[in-house]
Batch of 3 targets.
Target 1
Amino acid sequence: MSGIYIHIPFCKQACHYCDFHFSTSMKKKDEMVLALAKEIGMRKNELLDSARSDNEIVETIYFGGGTPSVLTNDEINFLISEVYKNYKVVENPEITLEANPDDLSAERILELSKSPINRLSIGIQSFYEEDLKMMNRAHNSAEAKKCLEEATKYFDNISLDLIYGIPGMSDEMWKQNIQTALNFGIPHISSYALTVEPKTALSKLIQTGKVAEPQDEVASNHFLILVEMLQQNGFIHYELSNFGKEKYFSKNNSAYWLGKKYIGIGPSAHSYDGVKRGWNIANNSLYLKAIQNNELPIETEILTVSDRYNEYIMTGLRTIWGVSLERIEKEFGSEYLNYLLEQAQKFLNDNLLSIENNILKPTPKGKFLTDGIASDLFYLNLDE
């Protein structure tokens, strides 16, 4: 089983914290949709299973961005039909559309409910007006609530994004943000700490003193509140930033974390086939020019043994499935296993990691520190 990710590189306006690839000019949108369709066809043989001389089955189609909801329903349906035309698709695939509340009018939601889209991922970020203004989001608090009210009438499988650690957000405000999401009966929540990426508007606002710098201690406390409140409400904390009710985990994202193959279509999109990783050029004009010349604007790298080990450590520790010590030994050898156990010892002693049933996992105390712990377990010095 594998997945198709389609990157829609357009946004109405730039959020202050975002460093993803997008353009706020829609001038080349029609051209881009045709180029995306063409790339879907150009790459149809990449999912060949050499053992069976047949294509792997596509289980998920994911529209990410940017803001995929700036596409019309006809454009979305056209791209989905191109996937079906060029790949084998499972009978009931998970087809996700990332969307912003300002694009989700009652009429649009009704239209989408009649399309092949069966999962919405809605970028709420916060229900507070001051937070949305500070982040330069295109929607307001009323739109956020109204779109969830409408979306839950027609869609069962909905995820929403919330950001914590926002300067000025008290613990009480954060609890209220979570509670508002829970009141709508949403079955999946993705939540991230506000991070300051270089060269973003947020970085400049902090440098000029217009916005306070996010504090790690505040973010850490918000994370603990999030975990506790969602677990009390029947959510499973299945990945560091993702919480889902049973049967509502994101199949698309779980495939990434479990090391399944996926093809990334569109400018800046990434791909992985188990052996090599690829990424498309992050420039709309150069991407369009290459596709129009029947060229794939992609760079690839073959992953070394230690690259694959490091990726497994990073993704394994972030998920409910942990890192299988048996798999480490089988796939990478005893040298890697011994190294891992040696490096993990201090975290085991400090009750930040635990080993149960031959699976290495962060403890509740270690969860917020997962990425830092993982980097200490990476194997960096092998000659390859």
Target 2
Amino acid sequence: MDLDVFVTAHRAEWDRLDALLGRRRLTGAEADELVALYQRTATHLSLIQSSAPDPQLTGRLSQLVARARSAVTGTRRASWRDVTRFLAHGFPSAVYRSRRWWVPTALISTVIAIILGWWIGTHPDVQASIAAPTELRELTRPGGQYETYYSSHPAASFAAQVWTNNAWAAAQCLILGIFLGLPVLWILFQNMLNLGVGFGLMSSAGRLDTFLGLVLPHGMLELTAVFVAAGTGLRLGWTVIDPGPRTRRTALAEEGRAAIGMAIGLALVLFVSGAIEGFVTPSGLPTWARIGIGILAELAFLLYVFVLGGRAARSGETGDVEAVERSATVPTAA
């Protein structure tokens, strides 16, 4: 594309659109003209971005298109309808669409945690490198630090602290996924290593049942949320490498917006797991009851994703914002 020729051919249209946007009132004919000019200018912007990107011209046209879209569609305010749509369709469909990433991530990570736990639990020399024998006994004995950890603070403040920490870990997986997913792998390994250390030390002390009774009630839902975040982050990283038929800019914009929605949704899921960890895990309920509550929470989330989310995804929901709120683009060849 010869950019100078293109600008010369269409400058008058852009100036006319700018002039119409500056008026407080428009006639019917002028309103129709504004809509037509907005559509043409949006197409011009996409062509320039894909064929002859020029920062100054792109900035001017982006601002012009944004103003025109606001004038055409009007100012839109968030409503309870948006919240309902997000919870019933957007979030579960986004999790469902990422299942080919987070389900294998969950399976592989769990296997790694078990292997690490077995290795630590069966090798005294590895345990000695973690802490001194007296410290290990203090960690694993009845009434030791592993057990008192969950009741060391008031339930409400402990749940809030756990929720904040886990939400930040999930957000890191989603945000850092754009760096080809490499930071996500490190965050996952750290989580599995921490789990493996507890698994190995408590099993070597003959108290694996106690450890599982403390971890499973909240851990199933909590780890599922972390795995979903990690899988989504890895998917975002792969989008950088292979955006498919979309342009890399468009693909990253779409997947990035969906990832932001995922962060909000997962914060709600982690709020539930934090509440379980703060109020159920240290409670006086029998172990079977505490684990049963954790299983019910996990099953509810999986049904929410695979039934409600699957139905929404098959109807075309992607977890992205509604079409009217997206940047205008032109079709690209596959």
Target 3
Amino acid sequence: MARVHGLQSPASRQAVSVSGLVACMALFCLIWATAVAPAQARPQNLQQLAAIASKLTETSVSYGAIPSLYRPRYDRVQDADLNMSREDVVFVVMLPDGPRIFPQRFMVWHQVVNELIDDVAYAITYCPITGTLMAYNASMGGLNLIFDLEGRLYDGNSVLIDRNSGSLWLQATGMAFEGPLLGRGMPTIPVYWTTWGAARTVYPDAPVLAQPRGNRPYGRDPYGNYLKKGTYYDNDILVYPVQRIDRRFPRKTPMLCLEYEGLLLAVDIGYVRKKGAVNFFLGPSALLAVHDPRLDVVRIFNRQIWAEPFLFVSQYGRLVDLNTRSVWDPATGKALKGNMQGASMKQYFGGYSMWFAWYSLNPETFVIPGPGEVPANLLSLNPPGRDDPPKDLTAPGPDTAPDTPQAPVQSPPSPLQRQPGTPLP
């Protein structure tokens, strides 16, 4: 449940109840509870986990052909900006000492960055074949793991090998499926897939991965280009086989993927970017997917506030709840203005993956858009019969918070921006 700070009491907030909200929640809880999920695909025991080793796909990449990086050099944002364009894809990783920025143009040639901060190891990993971005705390009981690419794939996803024990790991899950560390898993740390223009604006003091030494053609992506249509990153061609295919989305639709209280969820990033805010239920939990226009990312919050789930809409660059008409910050989940000022929603983090890769490994996943989404007819700021927006939401007032946008935010074009597709033939 989200924590609320800085409020006197529930009676003092003067919340406006939303008609039909309780019935809506009950309806969607019933939908999720009665939905028949496909058979579990993630290994449920050590035997199933170990069986992955017999299902690996051989590739032309041998161990060491794609070298990982260990404690690489970093540039300042000002220096990195000389060789970057605002549309370039970058990954922001929230490490304990602060955010760091990793340009995709370097990561595609190395795929793993091993870091050490305060004697704790971290692994930043990227699989270009599946578009999977994950970062892990790689320290286990004082053992700081160092990872390389092993060369083989599972469902198109990279297999990692640690230098310490020789165990094999799935890049997408951070779990060891072969070797002395079989069954061990690594905790994830927050990552964001965005553009250089957005990252440098939000994190102007963040260290930026410098171009590694060597003669690799870092200006060329061997798999295609996220900024151009018709390359591997947005076509329907799969170079390596996968166990399962689902046709609800184009195969390479970029998804924000996470596990929430035992349930798996994949959120279509382009869909949320278009809608601004998506209210939905995952089991009994009331969640919110919202587009943060400053960093140009999708964030997931728990919208259960006090004893009821709030409903949110995005209008004119502002995130507003229908219960109290308070204005919230989509970057932090905190209320900036209105009766709920000082309240906050808990944020949940995940990783990134193309749809085909996430589904093949997790066919039991729930999706957004999907049956848990709150219908649009329950999401209006206007009284019945009135189409014009409320004046207090379109005109900034004197008490508007400094960081609250005053006009529609024009996000830079994003390589992840694509419309939800029709089922594939």
